[in-house]
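Notes from hallway chat w/ T.B., transcribed later so I don't forget. T.B. wanted the structure written out for a chain they're using in a teaching module, and asked if we could keep both sequence and structure tokens in one place. Agreed to drop them here.
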Amino acid sequence: MAGTASVTFNNCTIQLNGNSHLFGNLYATRSLVKIYFNDCVVSSPVPTSLFNVMGPNWEGMDVEIYKVRSTFINIMVSSQSPLLEVRYKNF
């Protein structure tokens, strides 16, 4: 996939189990993905990342995380791959 995509979570409570991730494999290159969390709580009993481990096929993909009046507990938003750029905006 190449292009732009967006995902929005509104007024939600998301509980991840153990070492799971909210997003696994978003196979895309040369793309921008925007993810919005509006009035949400995202938590995990142990520290984990929103994203699964990423391989070299992610080259050129950018992800923007917009956290609006939301709380992340034990959740990292940084990329686990040097080829994926994650921009994080907290409102």
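Follow-up for T.B.: The beta strands are 3-10, 13-15, 31-38, 41-49, 62-68, 71-76, 85-90. Might be a good example for the class.
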